[in-house]
Design a protein that fits this description.
This protein has eight helices and nine strands. By secondary structure, the protein is α/β, with parallel strands linked by helices. It has one domain: UDP-N-acetylmuramoyl-L-alanine:D-glutamate ligase (3-Layer(aba) Sandwich), CATH 3.40.1190.20. Strand 5, helix 4 and strand 6 form a beta-alpha-beta unit. The relative contact order is 0.16. It binds adenosine-5'-diphosphate and (4-amino-2-methylpyrimidin-5-yl)methyl dihydrogen phosphate (MP5). Adenosine-5'-diphosphate binds next to strand 8, helix 7 and helix 8. This is Hydroxymethylpyrimidine/phosphomethylpyrimidine kinase.
Length: 267
Amino acid sequence: MSTMAKALTIAGSDSGGGAGIQADLKTFQERGVFGTSVITAVTAQNTLGVHGVYPQSLESIEAQLHAVLSDIGADALKTGMLFSAEIIELVSKLCKEYNVTNIVVDPVMIAKGGSELLQQEAVEALTTQLLPLATVITPNLPEAEKILGAGSIKTLGDMKEAVRELKSVGPQSVVLKGGHLEDEIATDLFFDGERMIPFETPRINTKHTHGTGCTFAACIAAELAKGNSLVESVTVAKQFITAAIEHSLMLGTGIGPTNHAAHRLKK
Ligand SMILES: Nc1ncnc2c1ncn2[C@@H]1O[C@H](COP(=O)(O)OP(=O)(O)O)[C@@H](O)[C@H]1O
Ligand SMILES: Cc1ncc(COP(=O)(O)O)c(N)n1
């Protein structure tokens, strides 16, 4: 008999297997933590995009959360697609009730093909209720612009300003992801109120980046669950996602998924 660190994902299901719950559970498994899940919405999705969104009832989400947290517990929790203000309110309430530490909030808003994974009117609930509970938030550039409600973030200079503003929204720390920068370097900027640390890798020339954000945030949660520091966790996550993008998969005819097992190919 042995024990294992536990990580919980609260997110949407991606039938195509590249993002959402499926990406999170695969990442947890690859990082050696026991994964549990609360499904907020089912999406009919493939490499060509999101073909349907079917949110779960609040009753279903609450029952799933109680089932996991009242028995198994979680050393870290990660949120992804939350879809509505009501779901955000419920998840925030239960995170407080169960006193979960190590909360990674990936403020998922729009899928790569443009479909809405968070209703426009839910951005305020996300900003005021869930982000302040987070150990770390991991917005991409368009999500950061929506949270801050102003300006466009186009350069590393803009990112340095934005990451400070995001911190003042209330999370303990921020990783602002620069995947959407038009730059040779894919820079993610960490800020915890004191340290500002850039995590840089050369940009990989591929369109197959479905699930990068989910995988990155899930990896941070897995490393936190094992007791690693936040900076160590982000360092591992950046290496993990880079390998996953380098070896991304040409499945389907659209935007293929990242390869969650790629780190095993590395010598
Ligand atoms: N083409 C790329 N080459 C290397 N790293 C990338 C590339 N695209 C995204 N990343 C990295 O993948 C992670 C997810 O970033 P991003 O694509 O911005 O998030 P999202 O999937 O939420 O839009 C970040 O660590 C980012 O730097
Ligand atoms: C259910 C679900 N959740 C999240 C994403 C975002 O994916 P990405 O990590 O590519 O931004 C998605 N496409 N589907």
